[in-house]
C-alpha cells in the first residue's frame, strides 16, 4: 500500500499541473451545469409539478451523460476526478500528492461554483428544484 505523499510546491506549478487544474475546473463546471441544468429544465417544462418516475430517470440519465463527458474530457490530462471525494481518496491512497489534491479541490469547487453562477444567469434566476424520492418509492 502506498503512503501519503505531501509533494512539493514546485511540481504543483508546472505547466502540466496547471493544465490538470484547468481540466478539473472545466470538467466539473460542465458536469454541474448539465446535471443541475437538467433538473431546472425538467422543473420548468413540467411547471414545477411533482417529480414522476420518467422525470427522475431523465434527470439521472442527464447526470450520467454529463459525468461521462466530464471524465472523458479530463481523463488524459488530470485523471478525470470531477469529484472532490475521488480526489481525496486518491490523495490518501498515495496516487497523487496532498498538495496536488488541494489544488484539484480548489479547481473542482471553483468549477462547480462557476457552473451555479452561470446557471443562475442563463436561467434568469430559476430556483434549483428539490425532489423527495422517498414519498413515491416503497420497498
TrEMBL record:
<feature type="transmembrane region" description="Helical">
    <location>
        <begin position="55"/>
        <end position="79"/>
    </location>
</feature>
<feature type="transmembrane region" description="Helical">
    <location>
        <begin position="20"/>
        <end position="43"/>
    </location>
</feature>
<protein>
    <submittedName>
        <fullName>Uncharacterized protein</fullName>
    </submittedName>
</protein>
<keyword id="KW-0472">Membrane</keyword>
<dbReference type="Pfam" id="PF00230">
    <property type="entry name" value="MIP"/>
</dbReference>
<keyword id="KW-0677">Repeat</keyword>
<dbReference type="GO" id="GO:0005737">
    <property type="term" value="C:cytoplasm"/>
</dbReference>
<dbReference type="InterPro" id="IPR022357">
    <property type="entry name" value="MIP_CS"/>
</dbReference>
<dbReference type="InterPro" id="IPR000425">
    <property type="entry name" value="MIP"/>
</dbReference>
<dbReference type="InterPro" id="IPR034294">
    <property type="entry name" value="Aquaporin_transptr"/>
</dbReference>
<dbReference type="GO" id="GO:0019755">
    <property type="term" value="P:one-carbon compound transport"/>
</dbReference>
<dbReference type="GO" id="GO:0016020">
    <property type="term" value="C:membrane"/>
</dbReference>
<keyword id="KW-0812">Transmembrane</keyword>
<keyword id="KW-1133">Transmembrane helix</keyword>
<comment type="similarity">
    <text>Belongs to the MIP/aquaporin (TC 1.A.8) family.</text>
</comment>
<dbReference type="GO" id="GO:0012505">
    <property type="term" value="C:endomembrane system"/>
</dbReference>
<dbReference type="GO" id="GO:0015250">
    <property type="term" value="F:water channel activity"/>
</dbReference>
<dbReference type="InterPro" id="IPR023271">
    <property type="entry name" value="Aquaporin-like"/>
</dbReference>
<feature type="transmembrane region" description="Helical">
    <location>
        <begin position="85"/>
        <end position="107"/>
    </location>
</feature>
<keyword id="KW-0813">Transport</keyword>
Amino acid at each position: 500500500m502506498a503512503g501519503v505523499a505531501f509533494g512539493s510546491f514546485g511540481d504543483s506549478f508546472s505547466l502540466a499541473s496547471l493544465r490538470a487544474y484547468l481540466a478539473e475546473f472545466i470538467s466539473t463546471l460542465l458536469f454541474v451545469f448539465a446535471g443541475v441544468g437538467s433538473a431546472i429544465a425538467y422543473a420548468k417544462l413540467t411547471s414545477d409539478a411533482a417529480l414522476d418516475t420518467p422525470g427522475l430517470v431523465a434527470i439521472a440519465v442527464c447526470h450520467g451523460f454529463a459525468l461521462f463527458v466530464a471524465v472523458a474530457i479530463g481523463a488524459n490530462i488530470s485523471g478525470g476526478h470531477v469529484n472532490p471525494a475521488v480526489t481525496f481518496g486518491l490523495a490518501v491512497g498515495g496516487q497523487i500528492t496532498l498538495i496536488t489534491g488541494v489544488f484539484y479541490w480548489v479547481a473542482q469547487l471553483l468549477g462547480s461554483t462557476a457552473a451555479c453562477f452561470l446557471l443562475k444567469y442563463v436561467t434568469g434566476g430559476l430556483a434549483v428544484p428539490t425532489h423527495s424520492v422517498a414519498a413515491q418509492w416503497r420497498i
